[in-house]
């Protein structure tokens, strides 16, 4: 496992270009399995999770051609379903969360799909009921034995139906949509997740000949078609990376411009950072964060302490809460961070407390942060990255801290951030990658 050694306390200055969105990439890559024709995808981020999924698709028989740095062409003409029974598949499939989304396309096109229990962040229980109940409603037979780490689904034919999802699961909605596009008849999905990731997937599928309406809402209609054709698709900039860069600028008192952010797709993210007192200027489609010596957290209108909580889209994505928490440690004022979705995502606050941050972890879901107003810098320390977003939050904390910090297990960061060390060093950061 590699390590980052970070010399903190330097101010950064310059432009950052966000990578393509990890969570969209994982969906649209799986969608390439739905057609035997060529699918060209632009702006694919060069990150561990995406590269692992591309490798998995190639092992399944998809022909993969890299045409430019972030552009690939996929052709799923000769799929080897036998691979699903191999030990190698069991290992590769369980190494990331996104692999779960090969089920919908495989089931729709080939009538069967097996998948090992997927990986991803260990941030609490991450159930998959929504996926499997959805497939069962479409007529699939689902087999899973407790202790067996494999899920098996078979369906000679999928039939459209009405379904009300028990929760607005992001990958669950994507999976069900990809199964429904080739089902017989119309599928209505209510309480669907509607993140830009899902909207992008639906637009891509429609460009392949699918008939999906209601895009952007939580009520989707999917009229099944007999087959899909190839297409060309461009992945949106990663909104979580954009949020991470805004937080980084504020914490390190840096002036940073984030280029081509697709501002319209960012939902409540910019306003949430503004509530922490961070100034953002929108110039064309760029976000410019001016150098700020201090930032003051707003209270609610009645004077009570601000709460920032996650919620299904268009609410605030849970993937930014760890970053918001770390940024609040140097703000003026207090805020309650409420992580409603995941139950183990706030434990990394112990590390921030070691560094001198004032945080009370009220319970696994809630933390109160009392900002230091940039008066006392955090202290450098040694830490291990527990998950992707905590990892980046700790990186931001270390960049703002006095002294030299180390973060181990940075594979967790590489899972979702493309060459983060090189990109930040280019604007003045001091991060050294040590390959162990
Ligand atoms: C590969 C991928 O795309 N991963 C994302 C995806 O994971 P993923 O699709 O796995 O997450 P889900 O949307 O299924 O659910 C995440 C968690 O939130 C809970 N939940 C979900 C919906 C809801 O209305 N209420 C609720 O409490 C679930 O029980 C679960 O514990 O969506 C998560 C939620 O945005 C993000 O953190 C992950 O980055
Ligand atoms: C939780 C995340 O990823 P995954 O679902 O891949 O574990 C994330 O991107 O913050």
From TrEMBL:
Localization per record: Cytoplasm
GO molecular function annotation: UDP-N-acetylglucosamine 1-carboxyvinyltransferase activity
Entry annotation: catalytic residues: 121
Keyword Ubl conjugation in record: no
Principal EC category: transferase
Main localisation: cytoplasm
E.C. code: 2.5.1.7
Catalytic activity line of the entry: phosphoenolpyruvate + UDP-N-acetyl-alpha-D-glucosamine = UDP-N-acetyl-3-O-(1-carboxyvinyl)-alpha-D-glucosamine + phosphate
NCBIfam families on file: murA (TIGR01072), PRK09369.1 (NF006873)
This protein's name: UDP-N-acetylglucosamine 1-carboxyvinyltransferase
């Amino acid at each position: 496992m590699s390590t980052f050694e970070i010399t903190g306390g330097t101010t950064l200055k310059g432009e950052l270009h966000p990578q393509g969105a990890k969570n969209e990439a994982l969906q649209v890559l799986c969608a390439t399995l739905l057609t035997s024709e060529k699918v060209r995808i632009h702006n694919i981020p060069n990150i561990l999770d995406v590269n692992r999924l591309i490798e998995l698709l190639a092992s399944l028989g998809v022909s993969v051609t890299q045409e430019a740095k972030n552009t690939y062409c996929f052709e799923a003409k000769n799929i080897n379903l036998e691979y699903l029974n191999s030990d190698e598949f069991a290992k590769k499939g369980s190494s990331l969360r996104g692999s779960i989304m090969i089920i919908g396309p495989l089931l729709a096109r080939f009538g069967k799909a097996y998948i090992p229990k997927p990986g991803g962040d260990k941030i609490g229980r991450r159930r998959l009921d929504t996926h499997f109940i959805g497939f069962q409603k479409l007529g699939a037979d689902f087999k899973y034995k407790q202790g067996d780490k494999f899920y098996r689904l078979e369906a000679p034919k999928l039939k459209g139906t009405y379904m009300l999802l028990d929760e607005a699961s992001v990958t669950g909605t994507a999976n069900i949509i990809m199964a429904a596009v080739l089902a017989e008849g119309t599928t209505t999905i209510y309480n669907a997740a509607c993140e830009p990731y899902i909207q992008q997937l639906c637009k891509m599928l429609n460009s392949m000949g699918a008939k999906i309406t209601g895009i952007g809402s939580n009520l989707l209609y999917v009229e099944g078609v007999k087959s899909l054709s190839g297409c060309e698709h461009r992945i949106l900039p990663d909104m979580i990376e954009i949020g991470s860069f805004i937080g980084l600028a504020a914490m390190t008192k840096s002036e940073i411009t984030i280029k081509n952010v697709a501002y319209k797709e960012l939902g409540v993210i910019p306003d949430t950072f503004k509530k922490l007192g961070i100034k953002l200027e929108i110039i064309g489609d760029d976000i410019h964060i001016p150098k700020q010596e201090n930032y003051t957290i707003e209270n609610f209108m009645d004077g009570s302490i601000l709460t920032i909580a996650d919620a299904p889209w268009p609410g605030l994505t849970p993937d930014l809460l760890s970053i918001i928490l770390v940024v609040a440690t140097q703000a003026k004022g207090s805020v309650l961070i409420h992580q409603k979705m995941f139950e183990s995502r706030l434990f990394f606050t112990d590390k921030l407390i070691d560094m001198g941050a004032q945080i009370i972890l009220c319970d696994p879901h809630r933390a109160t942060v009392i900002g230091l107003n940039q008066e006392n810098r955090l202290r450098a320390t040694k830490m291990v990255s527990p998950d992707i977003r905590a990892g980046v939050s700790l990186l931001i904390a270390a960049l703002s801290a006095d002294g030299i910090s180390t973060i181990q297990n940075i594979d967790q960061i590489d899972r979702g951030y493309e060459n983060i060390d090189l990109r930040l060093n280019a604007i003045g950061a001091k991060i050294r990658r040590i390959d162990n």
